Amino acid sequence: MRELIAFDHVSPDGYFTDERGDLSRAKEGSDGEQDRFATERAEGGGMLLFGRVTYELMARFWPTPQAGQTLARLAERMNSLPEVVLSWSLGGARRNNTTLVKADPVGCLRRMKAEPEPDVAILGGGSTVAHLAGPGLIDEYEFTVTPLALGAGRTLFDRLKERLHLRLLRSHVFKKGKVFLRYGSA
Model pTM? Predict the structure, then answer.
């Protein structure tokens, strides 16, 4: 069975975006060590899962010359991995390796998890994470904590209705102060 792994950048005060929806702080303090780490994580293959907002951001950035020049191997992986987008409002997918799911995302993910294919990574998407965490579909949560408190914004679990107990599986501190944390469902 494949696993569903959620990944996002968060601030120490728990926000993945500020009050204006700005995600740019995730880039602050990035360095070659973190870029290599992200590229190694993408080498494993699998499938990417997005909500509409994150999908549109990714579809605008990864195919650009800038992405190819600054993060060549990661851009290659991000452009070649199959993608699933959960969205009721997206008219259609812009990329040819994308499947759009407009109805019953929980049922769709339950079926996908039962398949023997490689794992599925949720990148970003606060409402997507909370929507799938509630019914217990997410197996692991990976966070990169950027040492910048935002004071306000959205958390990944804004819409979570019950407590979510997690257990630490791995941690790594990057030289510039970011921290990678991997949690499993308890």
Answer: 0.86
